[in-house]
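Worked example

This section walks through a single chain of length 135. The input is the sequence exactly as stored; nothing has been trimmed or padded.
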Amino acid sequence: MSNEFIFPAITSLFAGIFALMLVPLTLQVGLKRIGTKVMFGDGGDEDLARRRAAQSNFTQYVPFVIVLLALVEMSGLPSAFVWAIGGLMLLGRLSHAYCFLAQDGKGNLRALGMMPTMLSFLILGGALIYVFVAA
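Given that input, the structure is written out below as tokens.
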């Protein structure tokens, strides 16, 4: 492993995509808050609670995966690996958000959205431990 800095270009693309994905999730919450005049919490409004859950779930997982993905990319592991795991996470987040916003948080897409998310964490965590042990 080289000590030369490697810019995580692939991760940067995924980070940009995820940043753009966060905007509509946040707007959904803000617009509902304006409509319900509920500025804190969900005020017992089920739709607002669901929108907040979609946004919060996204912000709980995506930043950590971006960091892990960047570390894996900078470690020198094959770029195909980085593309695959970034794509897996993107697929998971898209299906999870769709389920929350278009299907009232019900249905198989919610679970199908979390499976790639958890799989991404497992693979990235394992890869980073492998890189450490192999160094």
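What to look for: The CA atoms of residues 71 and 128 lie 8 Å apart.
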